[in-house]
């Protein structure tokens, strides 16, 4: 099966490795996806420009096809009084784990946006995708002029139309079942819980751009259904978290298949932005009171989450997971990606 998007990306496998910020996504995972015939994305989120540059060059040196994903501004400002109340509520948890939460006002940064975009213009990569916000049309034009294919993550036909106006080459259509952060452009209004094929079809009818489908994929049938609905490729993240090349922590890997975790839930408790995770004590206790505010809450809770990860306390870790998490296997990433393409006609 060949499509205009796959031809442009230089891939033969219509299953891609999604960007996973925070350490789960690794250069090794990106290279493994490329060697399987697909494409992987380095996650630029939470990294300095220098760290991202080093990862880019390490993948580029292998000759693998790859992409880079960035968190696009604007951030979501937090209400200072709500932030302080939330910090006060979390303080005893941090004290019990021998750590401290950040003191002072909320940290409202843009994840070094300018430095990273300047890097990608100075040292162009094959593909760049954006999430959380829309890049300016001038940046999209500059990246395309440098030979980069530009993709934008969206969660609705309305967002797809806004992205198309910026001149992007294609869209990553993310369903609400996706693990980790929602790509929504309106975090105060979480996306409707629409099945992935239905969402792909709606976006396809709204804009004439190539589509990559993402969110809640559990197996080859899900991939085939998304492609029938009009996607040209499918991006998966959760199903790669237990693979050999994943950088996910041991507690996170194990929790994905632990019968103690019975469901996933969308929550703002960890970062102040809607994200889907395994339901645990943290989501239950702090989700209802967590204010919107990204990246302020991300920075606030980071020491607590790191301390919990060090001790394997899965009751307090951000266990990002899509609805297909039970199907994640311990195996080479290439095996996962190829198996997911098994029901694609012509393969």
UniProtKB/TrEMBL annotation:
The keyword Oxidoreductase applies. GO terms for molecular function: monooxygenase activity. CDD domains: NPD_like. Pfam families: NMO. It catalyses: 3 propionate 3-nitronate + 3 O2 + H2O = 3 3-oxopropanoate + 2 nitrate + nitrite + H2O2 + 3 H(+). Its cofactor is FMN. InterPro entries: Aldolase_TIM, NMO. The keyword Oxidoreductase applies. Keywords: Detoxification, Flavoprotein, FMN, Monooxygenase, Oxidoreductase. Belongs to the nitronate monooxygenase family. NMO class I subfamily. PANTHER family: NITRONATE MONOOXYGENASE-RELATED. This is Propionate 3-nitronate monooxygenase.
